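LOG
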Amino acid sequence: MSSYRQHLYHIVFRTKDSLPSIKQEYVNDLYSYITGTIKNKKCHLYRINGVENHLHILTDINPSLAPIDFIRDVKVSSSLWMKASCLFTAFNGWAVGYGSFTCSFKDLDRLIEYIKNQQEHHRKISFEQEYRSLLLEYGIIPEEKFFP
C-alpha cells in the first residue's frame, strides 16, 4: 500500500520594514529562483506572487521538512540571491516573521486566484490590512504592536 499526503501551506512574508524593495520588472527572475528552491526540497509550488513589499507562496511541503525550516531556507536563500544578483538594489532582507497557514485542498483554486491577483488586490488595501485579515481568517488574533 502506498502512502498519500497533501500538506498545503499559504505562506506570506514581507521585506524588512515593509520597504517597497522588490522591483516588479525582475520578479519573474525572483520567482524562478524561489521555484527552483522549492522544487529542490521536493515540494510542489502551486502559486507565487506578490507586490513590492511582500510575497505569497502556496505550496505543498514535503512531510520530511518542518515548515519553519522550509520557510527559513526559502527566505535565506532568496535573500542571498537577491543581494548577489544586483537586481534588487534597495532590498535589505526579509522581515523576521512570517505567516504560515495550513489550507484545505478544496480551497486550492480560490487561493491560487487570490495570490494571482495580488497587484489588483493591493490597489485597494495595504499589506497590513491584508495581513490582519488573513490572520483573522485563519483564527489568529493579531498582536497590534506589529501593526502601525
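LOG (cont.) second protein
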Amino acid sequence: MNSGFFERGGWWVLGQSALMPLVLALGPLYPGEARPAWLRGLAGILFAVGAVFGIGGAWVLGRNRTIFPKPHADSRLIRHGVYQWVRHPLYTSLILLSLGWSAWWASLPALLAGAVLAVFLDFKARREEAWLRGHFPDYAEYTRRVRRFMPWIY
C-alpha cells in the first residue's frame, strides 16, 4: 500500500473493513437463546431502512463514491436525494444493517460489535467532514441544516 492510500484515509478503510465482518460473524456464532418474532420484525424494518439509505446514497453519489473518507479532487458536494436528509447515508446504512443483523440473531456480541462500528463510523465521519470543509467552502452551511446520521436527530 502506497502513501496515497493512507493520505486519503486508508486507516479508516482498514478499520471499517475489520469491524463489518466481525459484526457479520458474531451473529451466527453467538445467537441469542430466545429469538422472538417481534425481534425478527424489528430486524426486517432495520434491514429495509438501512437498504434505502445505502442504495439511495450510492445511487446519488454516483462517480463521487469512494471507499476513502477524503474526497476526490474533482468531486462535487452532493446535497440532493437522501443527502438532503443525512450527511452520511452510507454510514447510516451500515449502522442500521448492523443493528438489524444483531436483532435477527438476537446476538449481544454482534450488537456490541455493531455499537463499536457505529462509534467508529462517527469518528470517521468527523474526520471526513474536516476534509469536506476544506474542499467545499459551503460545507459548513450544509452541516448546520442536515444531520450526520439520523434526520432531525443526529
